[in-house]
Amino acid sequence: MLAKRIVPCLDIKDGRTVKGVNFVDLRDAGDPVELAEIYSKEGADELVFLDISATEQKRKTLADLVYRVAEKINIPFTVGGGISSVEDVDVLLQNGADKVSINSSAVKNPKLINDLVAKFGSQCIVVAIDAKQIEGEWIVHLVGGKVPTERKLFEWAKEVEERGAGEILFTSMDHDGTKDGFANEALAKLSQELNIPIIASGGAGKVVHFTDTFKEGKADAALAASVFHFKEIGIGDLKKELQEEGIPVRI
Fold it and tell me: Average pLDDT for residues 94-114, to the nearest whole number?
């Protein structure tokens, strides 16, 4: 079995790392370059950097900040926020990103997934999907969770896979920042219906939540932010506990 991945996430706004609950009430969580270096040294498997206000403010991801983060880490690095073209991806890869994450732009122009995969390869393209339950249906949202769409989670995820994306980063907006655990039922369904890796996001609060999302949610990776930023869970300790639970991780 492939090792499960632990992925800290840096949500960036105005050059600082921030964290909120259900995508709102953001608070400062520190300098992204310093945090990235710490996580790389602590044994994180990958790092995700999301410029959360880029799409809303209609600007490009902060390439210079991406470069400064990339200089300090030696683990795979995924960057997202405001990416809408082949040229955008080119700039980020040249500045040290290993993969890119697209979200709103993919929903608005699904062919973008095909274009990016054709140019850079599936392994480089992650599609992030933010969804929340509305009347029992998981509905995809855009622009940092502010704009609901007609898209349904499982149908969109399947299309994303068919268009060649290498991974899906699924964030449950209902669980985001609550620290009550991941959306394991939806994750398990995604895992069952798709053949590409699923990254779980939204809801990490305790070590058991990671254990549950790997066992029950069948996630391939678990992404978290505040529990790492505010030192509630150490990555090394987390991996040891996961290993004791029989979950394969890189120590």
Answer: 96
31 is a catalytic site residue: no
- The CA distance from 167 to 2, in Å, is 15
What are the residues whose beta carbons fall under 8 Å from the beta carbon of 42, sequence distance 6 or more? 234, 235, 236
Catalytic residue among 11, 51, 88, 212: 11
Tell me how far apart the alpha carbons of residues 130 and 45 are, in angstroms, rounded to a whole number: 22
- pTM higher than 0.85: yes
Write down the catalytic residue from 45, 88, 130, 212.
130
- Is 130 catalytic? The answer is yes
Q: pLDDT tens across 116-149, in order?
A: 999 999 999 999 999 999 999 999 999 777 899 9
**Residues β-bridged to residue 16:** 13
DSSP per-residue string spanning 218-249: --SEEEESHHHHTTSS-HHHHHHHHHHTT--B
Three-class DSSP category at 55: coil
Top-level class of domain 5-244:
alpha beta
In order of 78, 138, 211, the CA distances from 189 in angstroms are 24, 12, 17
> How many Å apart are CA 40 and CA 204, to the nearest integer?
19
Mean per-residue pLDDT over the chain, rounded: 90
Tell me the HSE value of 185 on the side-chain side, using a 13 A CA sphere.
5
The distance from CA 231 to its chain's CA centroid, rounded to whole angstroms, is 19
What letters, b where the CB count within 10 A reaches 16 and e where it falls short, cover 155-167?
Answer: ebbebbbebbbbb
The domains of the chain are located at 5-244
